[in-house]
Amino acid sequence: MSFTRTLCLLLLLLAWVAGRPAAFAQTTPIPTATPDAKAPAPKKQLQAVRITGAIKLDGVLDEAAWQQAPVATDFVQQRPNPGQPERHKTEVRVLYDDANLYIGAVMHDSSPDSILREMTARDQFGNSDLFCIFLDTYHDQLNGYNFGVTPAGVQYDARYSPAGGEDFNWNAVWDARTTQRGTDWYAEMRIPYSAIRFSKAPEQLWGLNFARQRKYDNAQYFWNEVKPAVNGFVNQWGDLRGIRDVQPPLRLSLTPYISSYVNHNPLNAEGTRRTTTSFNGGADVKWGINESFTLDATLVPDFGQVQSDNQVLNLSPFEVQFAENRQFFTEGTELFSKGNLFYSRRVGATPIGFYNVKKGQREKLVRNPAETQLLNATKVSGRTKSGLGIGLFNAVSNDMYATLRDTETGQEREVATQPFSNYSIAVLDQSLKNNSYVSLINTNVTRAGRTYDANVTGGLFRFNDKKNAYALDGSVVYSRRRGNVFGEDTPVGDQDGYKYAVGVGKISGNFTWDVNHGIESDSYNPNDLGILFGNNNITQRVGVAYRKFQPFWKVNNMAFFGQVGHALLYKPTRYQSLYFYNGFNTTFTKSFLQIGYDLQHNARTNDFFEPRTNPLGEFYVRVPANTDFVAFLNSDTRKQVALGLNAGVQYYAQDERLSRPRRVRYSLGAYPRYRVNNHLTFRYSLDWSRSRNQIGYVNGGLSEDEPLDQPFMGQVLLGRRDVATVSNVLQAAYTFTNRMSLTLRTRHYTSTVRYQDFVTLAPGGQETPADYQRHRDNTYNAFNVDAVYAWWFAPGSQISVVWKNANSPDAQANEFTPLYFRNLSNTINTPHNNSLSVKVLYYLDYLAFRRKR
């Protein structure tokens, strides 16, 4: 399909999409939202009351000061029936003194049994009621805090920002107590000023909202109405007034840690110890530089207790993106997430020379650390009273070496796998009126010696109109690399690249739409500190959505989504793909059963990345037109037994130019959950997929000294293969109290690949059968057990005991075993690495220490 023909087709589709809502309404009338539903509700105000006496935090609210404070009540439902007043009243009062903000809340209900109170770990809600307070301390209507507590006393906190959305990885040190009396439950919260940031103004004006979740009927209520048809969240809060003559305190805390590990690895090289022990110590420091900015530093960090990665067999041309589980890199990083230019797993990642250690003829590899040792990491972030956010991040990693041993003499030598490196980020983010902002971000990686350095600079913006109904956003990013390839004298070349993106759309109301366009040049590469799966693209996309927020007929809500996307190769300019997407979901009123589907049709695609060759544009894999359909349902999570299901099929057309069997892919997912009682819960997830006649790259791993490969050296070899993948995860959680829990997570993953035949790929997507005889079938197994006991014995202080058990996936990567239970048996019976660790954190607050003195 020519570029001109494709562009004409895209323009026709845009015209069809723009006229679609009226045509749709002719066949299926859908009520339109009232004008009031699209405009933010009037802002309520609450007066805080200063106190001089002490407040005992016990969840009773029996001090006289609580009765003297104004009451925030008359909450408004946000779901499932937006705009309805609450039937069971909520009453909230706010007090303050020179050091703390106090919140007292009474949640009235119909009966004791309708107050649900599942016990969970911190920052998890479960099947429970909930009360929380929201604070916008700079009143910029963009950034805010959330502090919440359940009837069982489980605390959670979160941050809100345009870049990070709702970030539950953020944690503060504060306290709360709850009680239940008959048909009411009470919450009493103490939030130290050291947990938040605010200006030195004589009189504070903060954004304020309260929320209550009544799980019995799956309803959520807000004090200041939050309308789902209005774009934004923080901009729909009310105001807190009356806080006068309070000074931002000196925020200084030290959290030292000690940890001890016992590790047994039966696969350690011969001549090395199978069981090793280690003792570590370090600290986290938090210092409030002024009322706006905070410095966070981790000194000699220890991340050995974080959850194990979900290892998979990667057959794609792109790397696997793993979740970040290290608390320092997940907490308070909303500024650094601007523009998606920071992938924190790059810091302390696998050394860049890990896979390229060259052994001599008589040498064997004794040690090769898979993680770079991080010496320290520091971040400074905050926002001024004028709405300027500033973020600075810096981390330093050590030199890393692999150890080789001569098998005859026993002499050892070290080979560098990673140079001493510095990682830094600088961010400026200016909040503007109408929920708008402009941002500038720079990331930099500097390596010792002649190994190349990398720098990326980006500018971002978002402008909303006064009614917060329409928005224009975009970004421009420039990347630069200079220096030599690691371990070589070969320059990487002057790699300068860029990308830009621009979009416009309607962002509020029942009906929304957006139009986006972007370019990533062929030399754009942010992957030294960011992540990008493929550059050299020109993309354009048009999306529409219709959401029905008010209940009607037998459903609570409904949403339709539609999208058309088109992609070209940037250099040379060639057609890549064209797709059409439609999605739908709804939730039923009484059963709270959620159902929906995702349907996408892909026109014939030219995959320029699968051949993994330079230059791009000459070689590509022809992917026939195909349709991908996935349906899903989720049952009522309030029930003791809950279930999520999804099933999908991706069916490919027959490509007449290629004489091969038709491709097809099936998938199934099942996610049951059984809540034994309010303390014990089991969760299980099963993900299964099977691809038949998949076409993929084969050359990886060919060796010049293997005669069977000699005829195909220098050629792109593709294989037709069947791939079956099964992932099982079983989790059990027992929560003793709201500060003590035990969790167990077991995961087994297996993926089996069987090749049917092979072809060589020529320019223009031409394929020629190849008489290739090398055995390529294999099975990849990964098995992990993570058991964690955690006890928060004081605010900010924790003892954790972690046991980890894992196999070595590479040890079985070449054994073709298609039967799942045989794979499971082989995986369990192979040698495993076992690690037992104990870690103690103790939070030391300077203000508390000074008050005690």
TrEMBL record:
Database matches in InterPro entries: Carb-bd_dom_fam9 (IPR010502), DUF5916 (IPR045670)
Segments forming domain Carbohydrate-binding: 57-214
Organism superkingdom: Bacteria
Signal peptide positions on this chain: 1-25
Residue ranges constituting the DUF5916 domain according to the UniProt record: 248-851
Pfam family, one: DUF5916
Keywords for this protein: Signal
Name under which the protein is recorded: Carbohydrate binding family 9 domain-containing protein
Species annotation: Hymenobacter lucidus
Organism placement in taxonomy: Bacteria, Pseudomonadati, Bacteroidota, Cytophagia, Cytophagales
